[in-house]
Design a protein that fits this description.
Layout: H1 13-20, H2 29-51, H3 57-95, H4 102-129, H5 135-162, H6 168-188
């Protein structure tokens, strides 16, 4: 049974890794996507702190707020994803074909789409930070970008996995939403 009071943010890294290996904890790819985004935001904030004197004060304060907020929201989304997966699996075990299962399946699809949106927000802020980053901090910024991109890709994969469970019209609509986000991600790597 899923313990809703057991927040992922309170787990040690070792606990997270151990629990991701066990199906009963409901820590799948969606949780991994969220954790990757939280790590990316933390690295971005580390870089921001290293270069803060070369940033406009207003931009530096905005980045401090955004990076901290994204890290917190990503960890909160990990709990949301975990709960959505639990509800989805429970629904699929009971009666996946019923019309009452559609809202649960849709929710389990929209949660990772929201995670991808959070990652796209972070990617945009990383692009704003990049011009101020000297060589000594460039590797940390690139690591943040890589984690962010992988988190977005993982979130989109989780959303895509649920499409066959939805009605064809709704699946087609959500596939377009997934592809729109994938195109934004692809464009950001150019």
């Amino acid at each position: 049974m899923l313990e809703v009071d057991d927040r992922i943010a309170s787990w040690s890294v070792q606990e997270l890794i151990d629990r991701m290996r066990r199906p009963r904890y409901r820590c799948g790819g969606g949780v991994a996507a969220c954790v990757a985004l939280a790590q990316a935001a933390a690295l971005a904030d580390l870089v921001r702190r290293a270069v803060r004197r070369s940033l406009d004060n207003g931009l530096e304060q905005e980045m401090a707020h955004v990076f901290g907020s994204i890290a917190e929201r990503a960890l909160a989304r990990a709990d949301l994803d975990r709960a959505a997966l639990h509800e989805l699996l429970s629904t699929l075990r009971s009666d996946a074909a019923s019309s009452e299962s559609q809202p649960v399946i849709e929710h389990a699809t929209l949660v990772p789409l929201g995670t991808a949106d959070l990652g796209l927000e972070l990617l945009e802020m990383l692009a704003r930070l990049a011009p101020a980053v000297p060589a000594f901090a460039a590797s940390d910024l690139e690591a943040a970008r890589a984690l962010c991109r992988s988190g977005i890709q993982a979130a989109l994969a989780m959303a895509r996995a649920n499409l066959p469970l939805l009605t064809a019209p709704r699946a087609a609509e959500l596939e377009q939403e997934i592809e729109r986000r994938a195109a934004i991600l692809q464009e950001s790597t150019r």
